[in-house]
Amino acid sequence: MKKAIFIAFAFLSFYVVNGQTKASVTAKIKTPTIGCENCKNKIETYLKRNDGVTYVLVNWRRKETVVKFLTDRVNIEEIKTAIANAGYAADDILATPDSYQRLPKTCKSPKDGGPAKYPNIHSN
């Protein structure tokens, strides 16, 4: 009888420990309006504030952001919205106008006073 109780307890403990594993997802988001280290740092700072985001890597040369997050705390749409709220486009979500206006000139498109050296960097 003691053996049966011990085995049942062992299975129950194993089930509870494994049931607490949180699902983690890695997503690649196109961020076509980033173009410098300042843009990279701003997006990384904004995303790291979100509860559930465990990893952020912004590659401004490839115009993409890799995010690893816990699905029970945040979803991909919230992450894209956070990027838009930082002033940058994320896949199909455009930057919010107020956030875009607060960006430094070096992070804006040439038509808004940004650097003319790289005309295709920031296209809204």
Descriptive notes:
With 124 residues, the chain is an alpha+beta fold. It has a single domain (20-112), classed as Alpha-Beta Plaits (2-Layer Sandwich). The protein contains 4 helices and 3 strands. It has helices at 2-19, 37-48, 76-86, 97-102, and strands at residues 24-30, 53-59, 64-70. The protein has a 3-stranded antiparallel beta sheet with strand order 1-3-2, with helices on one face. Strand 2 (53-59) and strand 3 (64-70) form a beta hairpin. Helix 2 packs across helix 3. Residues 118-124 have low confidence and may be disordered.
Element layout with pairings:
Blueprint: H1 2-19, E1 24-30, H2 37-48, E2 53-59, E3 64-70, H3 76-86, H4 97-102
Antiparallel strand pairs: 1-3, 2-3
Helix pairs in contact: 2-3
Q: Which structural category do the helix and sheet elements fall into?
A: alpha+beta
How many E strands?
3
CATH topology: Alpha-Beta Plaits
Q: What is the terminal-to-terminal distance?
A: 71 Å
Radius of gyration in whole Å, from Cα? Answer: 21 Å
Name of the CATH class: Alpha Beta
Number of helices: 4
Structure, briefly:
By secondary structure, the protein is α+β, with helices and mostly antiparallel strands.
Kindly list the characteristics that best describe this protein.
single chain, 124 residues, alpha+beta, Alpha-Beta Plaits, 4 helices, elongated, disordered C terminus
